[in-house]
Write the structure tokens for this entry.
Amino acid sequence: MLMAVSYFLKTDPELLERQMRYKEKEPEQRTIVLLGNAVLVVGFLAIGYDIRQHGLNQVPSSIILIADAGVFLGYCFILWIFKGNSYASRTIEVEETQKVITTDPYSIIRHPIYLGLLEGGTYLSIVYSSDFLSGLKAGEEVTCSSRLTV
């Protein structure tokens, strides 16, 4: 994370500024973001509860290492998106000088950042060996798809 922030501080500080804007202007988007944050918090609380009640699941270390690689690749995919789209932002906004991005992952998928989040996040349930988190990933997928359609 530190390396990514250092890189973007040198090459694209405007991107980091856009990423720091949290306030959504539209009420529908605020609701979706609030629900997404709730799913995230409940997911991590569920991991603790799951481990407390059932102990660590016996997932082989090799599977956990593969899942770690999946989380890392999801993170790298998001960084690739940021590198290709300087206008990426946490909030939905259009700037006067903004162009439509049609290169890198945008040449294949319309909203690639959600794919990166879902791909990396899906492996977290394996990394944390949590059956609860696996179930809550479905809630996150619904939240992401809702953000696209509103």
